[in-house]
Amino acid sequence: MAAYNDTCGLVYLDEQATKITGKAKYITPENDPIVVMTRDTKVALEERILRTMRKLSKENDQDYSETFTDWETPKITWINGVPGCGKTTWIVQEFDNKRDCIVTATIEAAEDLKRKLANRIGAEATTRVRTMASILVNGFKEHTHNRLLIDEAMMNHFGAIITAALLAKAKELLLIGDINQIPHIDRHNVFPMSYEKPNAVAKSLPRTATILQKPHGCGICPQRNL
Which N-terminal residues, if any, form the signal peptide (predicted)? Predict the structure, then answer.
């Protein structure tokens, strides 16, 4: 959790002090301990995501140059579909109970998919449908997944997608989205972004693409493999 301090701006929760006192304590200058927060204050996950990345890296590999030397790039398939073509329905139909994990950009999308998969996998939907933020913070504690289905892939930075693949030890990625919809947006805007768009990065990779088209009146959603 983060709050605002007049002296140094955004400050983070002091987790150890909070546990000891039972009250929220923030890391602030000694001469200015006052912070401001509102009902709209959100949890700041950047520090926790950074800790996850450090766990992924090899010892003393500060720039991650050694971390990826023995990593096998997963097979990447781009699934493109216009709004209303049935991308969510396709994800539910494509989902493999034994090997897949669905990754969403928002909590709302995750809850929707959990409801639609509840009859097939029951309570296991909690661990088989995850938000990208949850994966980057918590990883995969129980088991790995052979394949990740990334819903609304354009909303995620491609680096986040690759990190999720590393954490899951995934051999295959299905990136589902619409190249004409809203892409990943850098809310912090503190440094230039590179390689943030999955479809742009994928242009340089051997890849498979599937185009989902608008469904006909009978409910059939045609697709073209490229």
Answer: none
